[in-house]
Amino acid sequence: MAADPKPLAPDAAKTEEGARNVLLSFARKIERGALDRARDMLDPASKARWSQAQWTALFDGLSRISVAVPDGRVEGAAGSSYYAVDLTISARDADGRPVEMKGPIVLRRANDIPGSTAEERNWHIESFELSTAGS
Protein backbone atom coordinates (compact mmCIF):
# COMPACT_ATOMS: atom_id res chain seq x y z
CA MET A 1 0.00 0.00 0.00
CA ALA A 2 1.53 3.27 -1.11
CA ALA A 3 1.67 6.38 1.03
CA ASP A 4 -0.35 9.50 0.35
CA PRO A 5 1.18 11.74 -2.29
CA LYS A 6 3.36 14.59 -1.09
CA PRO A 7 1.85 18.09 -1.00
CA LEU A 8 2.60 20.21 -4.04
CA ALA A 9 3.61 23.81 -4.47
CA PRO A 10 0.59 26.02 -5.23
CA ASP A 11 1.36 26.36 -8.95
CA ALA A 12 1.87 22.61 -9.36
CA ALA A 13 -1.35 21.89 -7.43
CA LYS A 14 -3.30 23.56 -10.27
CA THR A 15 -1.92 21.15 -12.87
CA GLU A 16 -2.56 17.55 -13.85
CA GLU A 17 -0.16 16.57 -11.08
CA GLY A 18 -2.48 18.28 -8.58
CA ALA A 19 -5.50 16.39 -9.90
CA ARG A 20 -3.58 13.15 -9.68
CA ASN A 21 -2.58 13.90 -6.07
CA VAL A 22 -6.21 14.31 -5.06
CA LEU A 23 -7.16 11.10 -6.86
CA LEU A 24 -4.30 9.15 -5.27
CA SER A 25 -5.21 10.50 -1.85
CA PHE A 26 -8.78 9.24 -2.33
CA ALA A 27 -7.51 5.82 -3.47
CA ARG A 28 -5.10 5.47 -0.53
CA LYS A 29 -7.85 6.29 1.96
CA ILE A 30 -9.94 3.44 0.56
CA GLU A 31 -6.99 1.05 0.62
CA ARG A 32 -6.20 1.89 4.25
CA GLY A 33 -9.84 1.49 5.29
CA ALA A 34 -10.28 5.19 6.03
CA LEU A 35 -13.66 4.97 4.34
CA ASP A 36 -15.23 7.93 6.16
CA ARG A 37 -12.37 10.16 5.05
CA ALA A 38 -12.63 8.87 1.47
CA ARG A 39 -16.40 9.48 1.46
CA ASP A 40 -15.80 13.02 2.74
CA MET A 41 -13.96 13.70 -0.53
CA LEU A 42 -16.97 12.74 -2.67
CA ASP A 43 -19.15 15.26 -4.44
CA PRO A 44 -22.65 15.93 -3.02
CA ALA A 45 -24.43 13.76 -5.63
CA SER A 46 -22.19 10.77 -4.89
CA LYS A 47 -22.71 11.26 -1.16
CA ALA A 48 -26.46 11.23 -1.80
CA ARG A 49 -26.11 8.04 -3.88
CA TRP A 50 -24.27 6.27 -1.05
CA SER A 51 -25.34 7.09 2.47
CA GLN A 52 -22.67 6.57 5.10
CA ALA A 53 -24.07 3.08 5.77
CA GLN A 54 -24.26 2.19 2.08
CA TRP A 55 -20.70 3.41 1.46
CA THR A 56 -19.40 1.33 4.36
CA ALA A 57 -21.42 -1.69 3.15
CA LEU A 58 -19.69 -1.51 -0.26
CA PHE A 59 -16.46 -2.49 1.47
CA ASP A 60 -17.83 -4.63 4.30
CA GLY A 61 -16.10 -7.99 4.53
CA LEU A 62 -13.51 -7.11 1.90
CA SER A 63 -9.79 -7.59 2.43
CA ARG A 64 -6.67 -6.86 0.42
CA ILE A 65 -8.31 -3.79 -1.11
CA SER A 66 -6.31 -2.25 -3.93
CA VAL A 67 -7.30 0.77 -6.01
CA ALA A 68 -5.91 1.09 -9.54
CA VAL A 69 -5.74 4.65 -10.77
CA PRO A 70 -4.62 4.91 -14.40
CA ASP A 71 -3.31 8.14 -15.82
CA GLY A 72 -5.83 10.58 -17.20
CA ARG A 73 -5.42 13.96 -18.77
CA VAL A 74 -6.67 17.43 -18.09
CA GLU A 75 -9.28 18.89 -20.42
CA GLY A 76 -10.78 22.34 -20.20
CA ALA A 77 -14.29 23.64 -20.72
CA ALA A 78 -16.07 26.92 -19.91
CA GLY A 79 -13.83 28.18 -17.13
CA SER A 80 -13.11 24.80 -15.57
CA SER A 81 -10.59 22.01 -15.96
CA TYR A 82 -11.51 18.34 -15.68
CA TYR A 83 -9.48 15.19 -15.05
CA ALA A 84 -11.25 11.89 -15.71
CA VAL A 85 -10.18 8.26 -15.30
CA ASP A 86 -11.77 4.85 -14.88
CA LEU A 87 -10.94 3.70 -11.38
CA THR A 88 -10.82 -0.01 -10.44
CA ILE A 89 -11.13 -1.36 -6.90
CA SER A 90 -9.99 -4.96 -6.45
CA ALA A 91 -10.36 -6.95 -3.24
CA ARG A 92 -11.17 -10.34 -1.77
CA ASP A 93 -14.50 -11.19 -0.15
CA ALA A 94 -14.86 -13.10 3.13
CA ASP A 95 -14.55 -16.40 1.25
CA GLY A 96 -11.39 -15.30 -0.56
CA ARG A 97 -13.09 -14.80 -3.93
CA PRO A 98 -11.98 -11.84 -6.04
CA VAL A 99 -14.23 -8.78 -6.11
CA GLU A 100 -13.87 -5.99 -8.63
CA MET A 101 -15.69 -2.66 -8.76
CA LYS A 102 -15.16 -0.13 -11.55
CA GLY A 103 -16.34 3.29 -12.42
CA PRO A 104 -15.49 6.66 -13.85
CA ILE A 105 -14.30 9.39 -11.53
CA VAL A 106 -14.09 13.01 -12.63
CA LEU A 107 -12.19 15.74 -10.83
CA ARG A 108 -12.81 19.41 -11.49
CA ARG A 109 -11.27 22.74 -10.65
CA ALA A 110 -12.42 26.20 -11.58
CA ASN A 111 -9.79 28.06 -13.51
CA ASP A 112 -8.43 31.25 -11.99
CA ILE A 113 -11.32 33.42 -13.11
CA PRO A 114 -13.01 36.33 -11.35
CA GLY A 115 -15.80 35.16 -9.08
CA SER A 116 -14.41 31.68 -8.41
CA THR A 117 -13.71 30.82 -4.80
CA ALA A 118 -10.45 29.39 -3.45
CA GLU A 119 -12.27 26.11 -2.78
CA GLU A 120 -13.54 25.93 -6.38
CA ARG A 121 -9.99 26.55 -7.66
CA ASN A 122 -8.79 23.37 -5.90
CA TRP A 123 -9.16 19.97 -7.52
CA HIS A 124 -12.13 18.09 -6.09
CA ILE A 125 -14.23 15.08 -7.02
CA GLU A 126 -17.01 16.25 -9.32
CA SER A 127 -18.59 12.84 -9.90
CA PHE A 128 -17.96 9.19 -9.12
CA GLU A 129 -19.81 6.07 -10.21
CA LEU A 130 -19.04 2.55 -9.14
CA SER A 131 -20.42 -0.81 -10.15
CA THR A 132 -19.46 -4.40 -9.58
CA ALA A 133 -17.65 -5.78 -12.63
CA GLY A 134 -20.08 -7.68 -14.79
CA SER A 135 -23.13 -5.72 -13.62
Task: Give an overview of the whole structure.
This protein has 135 residues and is an alpha+beta fold. The chain is 30% helix and 32% strand. It is built from 5 helices and 6 strands. The protein has helices spanning 10-13, 16-31, 35-40, 44-49, 52-59, and strands at 63-68, 74-77, 80-92, 98-110, 124-128, 131-132. Strand 3 (80-92) and strand 4 (98-110) form a beta hairpin. The radius of gyration is 15 Å and the shape is elongated. The model has no long low-confidence stretch (mean pLDDT 91).
Q: How is the secondary structure organized here?
A:
Layout: H1 10-13, H2 16-31, H3 35-40, H4 44-49, H5 52-59, E1 63-68, E2 74-77, E3 80-92, E4 98-110, E5 124-128, E6 131-132
Antiparallel strand pairs: 1-3, 2-3, 3-4, 4-5, 4-6
What are its keywords?
single chain; 135 residues; alpha+beta; six-stranded antiparallel β-sheet; 5 helices; 6 strands
Rounded average pLDDT:
91
Portion in beta strands = 25-35%
Please give the largest β-sheet: 6 strands, antiparallel
The general outline is elongated
H and E string: HHHHHEEEEEE
What is the straight-line distance between the termini?
27 Å
Helix content: 25-40%
Radius of gyration, Cα only, in angstroms?
A: 15 Å
Report the uncertain regions: none
**Strand segment tally:** 6
Number of distinct helices: 5
Structural class: alpha+beta
Concise synopsis of the structure shown:
This protein has 135 residues and is α+β, with helices and mostly antiparallel strands.
